[in-house]
Design a protein that fits this description.
CATH topology of the largest domain: Amino acid/polyamine transporter I
CATH superfamily of the largest domain: Amino acid/polyamine transporter I
Structural class: alpha/beta
Radius of gyration: 28 Å
Distance between the termini: 9 Å
Number of strands: 9
CATH architecture of the largest domain: Up-down Bundle
Shape: elongated
Strand content: 5-15%
Length: 662
Amino acid sequence: MNSDAGSETLGEPGLSGESGPDLATGGASKAAKPRRSASAALALGALGVVFGDIGTSPLYSVQTVFTADDHRVKATSPEVYGVISLVFWAITIIVSIKYVTFILRADNDGEGGIMALTALLRKSPLKTAKGKIALLTLGVFGASLFYGDGIITPAISVLSAVEGVQVAAPGLRDYVIPITVTVLTLLFLVQRYGTGLVGRLFGPVMVVWFASIAVAGVNGISKDPSIIKALSPSYGIQFIAEHGVVAFIALGSVVLAVTGAEALYADMGHFGRPPITKAWFFLVFPALTLNYLGQGALIVKQPSAISNPFFLILPKWSQLPMVVLATIATVIASQSVISGAFSVTRQAVQLGFLPRMTIRHTSEREVGQIYSPAVNWGLYIAVLILVLGFETSASLASAYGLAVTGTFVLNTILFLVVAHTIWRKPRWWVASLGVIFLIAELTLLAANLTKVTHGGWLPLAVAAAVFTILMTWQRGREIVTRNRTEEEGQLTEFLAALHTMQPRPQRVRGTAVFLTATLDTTPLAMRTNVEHNHVLQERVVIMNIQIENIPHVGDADRLSVLASGEEYAGIVRLQVTFGFQDEPKVPAVMRLAVDRAILRERDLDEVTYFLSRISVVRSDEPTMPRWQKRLFVTISHNSANPVEYFGLPLDACISMSAQIPV
């Protein structure tokens, strides 16, 4: 064992569902699905959080198709009709059919996103362990791609809106970057107030936004009503058949019209499936369709409009107000990805791919409405670097799409496995959906591979870094958990050995509380206290805490007592349950135990809380490469401190050190 390996102080979390390296499992707690309201208020909130990304895609997607790669796609009627047809059917197949109709039904205790599918696969009855591991790895990589996409979305969305100033007021060109940075800063500052509040503030704005782009689309359609024929898939098929390489290049930009689909799924936990479904089919999808048709009609009549068809579709007097509205809407577009990142991060923590982090619930009712300071400010720094580095939305567009399409494909594969193994759907049903979805998505992915050397490497690099961190933590946690379990030993065996231990431990005054990840093994702090100090308090409480996916757990259901056997008197094992909105304060649990006659009043007179200070050190065992061990130890330093989290009084806490190799 290397003494210079570095260490990490990890307290006994006693918290199922938010894993540190000391948890045997990181699975979500076994709770019933939270009851959700499909009210108009939730649908309005969903508009303000969920649909911002895909709802602002008209700002840059059509423009990018015709301006990318030195205008390889020409602004002629056949090509315009073909592009608009491809955009419409990409949205229809990927968003309306795949995500909204099917994948939103694949939730894990109400949570969505590719990590939710990964969690479901852990429960699936796959025939081989290797197959399950491979699928779980794909899920983790898909989540990593989501982060790669997540840093680009706020940058390109806000930049593209603010750049509208150059159309309405060219003299303000030099202020585009400062305005963008200011807007993004304000956006990340308000995250701490929660997606519920953000949704209520942004929801009405998005209603105005979708109504405005629908009206603008109708205005454009009036210039060439025949553009409605582009809704037929025949135009898209003909465009691909006749234009070959050019059509293939166009598909690399068409994907920009569906970039918010994965964020839509990841944000499901914030509002639930019914509000998202209603908002999509009754407002968002029709508005997007009208606007894309309007842009196509304008380009057919005025080919020079490819420079910025979204703003040129508008009358001159309305362009500057639309810049303001678009800027606000793109702020909201960024919100969908930020909220999705919060959700994906929490699920990664629950599944044991990240250490326990500070995650705050911002709603009294909805389990999915959360805020993570570390994720929020990490994204903020990354987004600012992109804005200052790329400077224009056109430059960012070349980096956009590859991570998105990769996530689409992985999501589809995992969903199909879930549908077959968990939902028990027949093979023909799974194969039919697979053909429809994968042909479209693999084609878009192949088209976006051409962007790798033009900026597409950036989201891939971010995804690779995140993937390495997630897999390193998961592997290291498994090793440390196994080694820690061996070090702890079975509690029943330890209690039985107390009778024959020499010297026999002395019972001293007071009550000792040991927080533990499992009630079956011996808390390391307890073992250390007995073996080195040869003492044990007259009353011992071994406590495990679980957080359930319901807002509140009443006092009547808070505690359950597990029999500790007759091996040693005065030892109580408590299983404690909190709702996600409850404050998991251990001293309050102790008071409740007295009220329930589990403990005596005098047991609270002198309480000491024992925590295990786990020093994770690198060993010479070939469990992981040395660089990965160093990374694991580094990540460990960011695990949350349980003293503050569980409301423990500092003057009544004693930490007992132990080294666990990795």
